[in-house]
Input
Amino acid sequence: MPSLRSRIFLTVLRNRHLLKFKLKKETAREWETSLPAVRASAAKTSKMFGKLPKGIRSAPVAIGELSAEWIEPIQADNDSVILYFHGGGYILGSIEAHRGIVAKFVSGSGARALLFGYRLAPEHRFPAALDDAVAAYRWLLSVGISPAKIVFAGDSAGAGLCLATLLAVRDRGMPLPAAAVALSPWTDMKHTGESLQTNASKCLAPTGSWVVCANHYLGGHDPGDPYASPLYGDLRDLPPLLIYVGGDETLRDDSVRYARKAKDAGVEVTLRVGEGMCHCYPACAPLFPEATRAMEEICSFIKRHQGRLD
Output
């Protein structure tokens, strides 16, 4: 059973519309009609998550025209790197909004992270985000970082992009990273998972959000393209994967079905489905114990696959 602390926290989030004196849960309608306003609101909120904890610093880095930032321990003593893919449905999200989240991975694992800002839809539709992700990984390799010391990690759409980038890297003949961590990955833009309906009333995501985001991102492109929806890809020869997903979120089946298919393809996969948990719940650490335990396992997984865990 979920902890009391997590139940209180998630109950507040599920009913946050009431705090705004609205009787109905938010829908994704504004994401279709007023995207600039939605982005402005998200940017305002992101300022609460941009502060770095003590002992962690950030430094901007230019990768061609791609903006990026190192998030690293002040006393970094190893050459291990996390390449982080931020979420936001391919239409939102930024380095600033995810700086604090990525710092949790850095603090727990001791590795530095490269957090990059890929181009967003609908201004830049598929495959712009994928091209930017491959460019970020190629840059890491070009500056001499061993793929054996790199772990991919991402949340939500960023986690889906992370898994799609593994396919693109493999198919382009580039060396694969040591492992990958995916929090609530969006793997199916055809929206065929049963949990999209069964968890709709419990999920924190606005109603219809995944359909709206897919329309913005794909712009009519085939939603079954594996580089957009990695669930439909050939998953052979991928590195070890750790996948976390909330039991009460609409994207639950995107993770469950992807993990099953990857295992059938011979990939080493660990899937954690958090009972009663929400979308990307490990990122909420240390607010409730389930998130804290998840982040601890994630960081141990990263260290182990980078050869730094005794």
About this structure: The chain is about 40% helix and 15% strand.
